Amino acid sequence: MRQDCAIPVWKWLLAVMLLAVITGARAEVCATDDRGQQLCLEQPASRIAALSPGATELVWAAGAGDQVVAVVDYSDYPPAAREVPSVGSHTRLDMERLLTLKPDLVIAWVTGNPPEQVAMLEELGLPVFSIEPRSFEAVSGTIERLSVLAGTQTAGFAEAGRFRRGIDSLRAEYRNASPVPVFYQVWDEPLMTVNDEHLIGEMIRLCGGANVFGDLARLVPRIGAEAVVAANPEAILAGGMGEENRGWLDRWRAFPGLTATARGNLFFVPPSLVQRPTPRMLEGTRLFCEKLEIARARR
């Protein structure tokens, strides 16, 4: 006598419900941003808006470049980012244009984007994830968190690991380097530098440099030329208004009494390798270290 092998309807329905619960649980992705706020998405983001050049680079580093639908001015790396629609500058967003692009994830800059505009995006229901990495480890961690939100963990975690290993290698290489008093010029008019809490301050320390303005209270303090003269750095490093503009160093040639000037230790470093908290800081840090080695050799 043949038995009926059909699955009871109630068992089939239960299996479907359990599968839906399991699938839904796996689809939801969560990460905590640099404001300490957890963001959960029902599924990985597929339309990402990056509201700073640094955020754009970090999303690409996380392996999610193909998912970026909006950037801001000066988002020029990688080259593919130049083809993505711009929604204004990081200091003034074109809200209407941004909304028409229908992002399902917005990557904001904690201290760089207008707070009122970021708040408006959240009020309109857009998922906002705010970042501001201030250490080498935070750069790697940010890449990993973005890759989780974008569903690109394999690529993102691999890139974060590459950056960590590169920084660790440089740290080991320069661990016992003799100190070099350094002034880093982050801007020209007004004259600005960084303190030890800034990520660039960590770059200087890793290379054996001693930031002559490291103990100032502000993250990016304004100073006067007379303060630089009084600090008498052994090396001056500066970027400029572009990747090849070395004009910021010219003013220091007018101070022959400066140790940095007297020894020819006025060094240019492309600003995008230093002033954006992205994996390219590995290359920028390597350049920093090479410049300080030159300064040591000139003693």
TrEMBL record:
<dbReference type="InterPro" id="IPR054828">
    <property type="entry name" value="Vit_B12_bind_prot"/>
</dbReference>
<feature type="signal peptide">
    <location>
        <begin position="1"/>
        <end position="27"/>
    </location>
</feature>
<feature type="domain" description="Fe/B12 periplasmic-binding">
    <location>
        <begin position="47"/>
        <end position="296"/>
    </location>
</feature>
<dbReference type="GO" id="GO:0071281">
    <property type="term" value="P:cellular response to iron ion"/>
</dbReference>
<keyword id="KW-0732">Signal</keyword>
<dbReference type="InterPro" id="IPR002491">
    <property type="entry name" value="ABC_transptr_periplasmic_BD"/>
</dbReference>
<dbReference type="Pfam" id="PF01497">
    <property type="entry name" value="Peripla_BP_2"/>
</dbReference>
<protein>
    <submittedName>
        <fullName>Iron complex transport system substrate-binding protein</fullName>
    </submittedName>
</protein>
<dbReference type="InterPro" id="IPR050902">
    <property type="entry name" value="ABC_Transporter_SBP"/>
</dbReference>
